[in-house]
Amino acid sequence: MDDGADxxxxxxxxxxxxxxxxxxxxxxxxRGERLRIKWGIDPSAPDIHLGHTVPMRLLRRWQRRGHxxxxxxxxxTARIGDPSGRSxxxxxxxxxxxxxxxxxxxxxxxxxxxxxxxxxxxxxEWFQDFGLEGMLRLAGSVTVAQLxxxxxxxxxxxxxxxxxxxxxxxxxLQGYDSIAVAxxxxxxxxxxLFNLLLARELQASAGQPPQAIxxxxxxxxxxxxxxxxxxxxNAVAVRAPATEQYGQLMSLPxxxxxxxxxxxxxxxxxxxxxxREGMADGSVNPRAAKAEMARAVVSVFHGPEAxxxxxxxxxxxxxxxxxxxxxPEAPVxxxxxxxxxxxxxxxxxxxxxxxxxxxVTQGGVTLDGARVTDWRIPIAPPPGAVLQVGPxxxxxxxxxG
RNA sequence: GGGCGGGUACCGAAGUGGUCAAACGGGGCUGACUGUAGAUCAGCAGGCGUACGCCUACAGGGGUUCGAAUCCUCUCCCGCCCA
Length: 401
Prior knowledge:
The protein is an alpha/beta fold. α12 packs across α15 (286-319) and α16 (340-346) crosses α17 (353-361). It has a six-stranded mixed sheet, sandwiched between helices. Strands 7-11-10-8-9 form a five-stranded mixed sheet, with no helix packed on it. It has helices at residues 2-13, 22-30, 50-64, 77-80, 95-109, 123-127, 131-139, 144-148, 151-158, 165-181, 193-205, 242-250, 257-264, 269-281, 286-319, 340-346, 353-361, and strands at residues 18-20, 36-41, 68-73, 119-122, 185-189, 212-216, 329-330, 365-367, 370-371, 386-389, 393-397.
C-alpha cells in the first residue's frame, strides 16, 4: 500500500528540480487525493515549441496518474511578456496578436496531452472584469521589496536598466491565476521559481491553502546554451514539418544531446544511458547519437515513419549532397542569357546584386550541380534548372516565359 | 522641478572634425574540412555600377567648415539619480 503510494510519488517527481513543500505534497499524494495541477503558458508567439513540452510531459504524467491538469492560457500576461531572464523590457503585444496566438495554441496543446479531463482556462475569464479595484487589492498584497528580490529585477536595478511598472505585475497576475483556479500544485520551469512561490503567498493571503510547486529543468535552445525561446530564434516548433525539425535538431551542439534525450524523447532510460556513456567514452559517434535523438523527438510529433523519412531525406541532401524531395519554384525567365546576379535576386536567393556577386565569388552558387565561378559571365539556364546557394537553399527556375 | 548620461548598421557596442560604409563582439552568410545545418579554421558583410566611381547612412531639422557620426543650435525620444 505504502509502496504503491511511494512509487506513485516518485513517478510524479522523477526528473524534477524543486518541490516545495515536499513533505506536504507527499502526504496528499499518499492520501490518494486527486490534485488540481496548474500549468500556464503565454500565447506570446504563434507556436508552442519543444521547450514547452518539458513541463507538458510532466503534466501528462500526472494526468495519467489521475490528477487533473489545469492549463492556463496566459492571454493577459502574454501582453506583458514574462520578464524572467530578461535584461530588457519587451514590447507589449497587441490583444489581437495574443488572441490569434491563443487560438493556435489550443490544438498544439494536445499534441502531448490527452484532451479528456484537461481543464483549459484563460486568464481573461477572471481578469476581464477585474477592474482597478481588483488590481489595487492584488497589488496591496505584496511589497515592492518582495518583488524586487526577483533575480532579473534585482540585476536590472543593479545595472541601472529600466524596469517597466507593468512588469512587476507579471508575477502578481500569474499568482492570482492560482487563486482563481484553486490550484493544488503548479508546474513550471526553474526560471519560474519566484513566480510560483509568490503564488503561494497570494493564495495564503486570500485564505486559500497554498499550492505546492514543482519545477522542471529548462531546455536549452538550438544554440546550446540559452533557454529555448521563440524570440531568441533558437526554438523548434512542435508543428514544424518533420524535415525541418530533424534538421534543426541535427544542428544542435553535441553537448546538448544528453539533455535533449532526457527531456524531450521517449527513449527508454537504458538506451539513453547507453548513448550518453557511449558519447562520453568515444564508442558512440556523437553524430549517430544526435541522429537517434532527433528521430526520437520528431517521432513524438509526426510518428516514427515520418521521422525515418525525414532522417533519410536529411542524409540524402546533406551527407550525399543530393537534391531535396521538394524544391520551391521561382518564376524566373529561362532559356536566355542573363546576369547570374539578376537571376539570384529574382529567385530570392540573394537580397541584392552585390550579395549575389559575393555568393558567386565565394563559390556558394551552383546551377544544376555545376559551380558558377564568375558572375561576369552570363548564364542561360534551361527551364527547370536547379539553382543552389550554400548547402541547403534550392530553387527550381520556372519555365520559359 | 533639478542634475547627469544616452540615441551609431540585425543586436550589443567603439569611434568625438578628414585616412569612416564606420573598430570589436554576438547573430547571419560562404568556403575548406568533416560526423550534419554540429566542432574547428578561413573569409564575406549598405545600394548601384564588371575597375577608378557614384548614391544612401551614424534619432530628426537647421547651421559652422574646403570637409561632420564627430563642433554649434533647435526638436523628438530614452535611461539613471535627487526632489
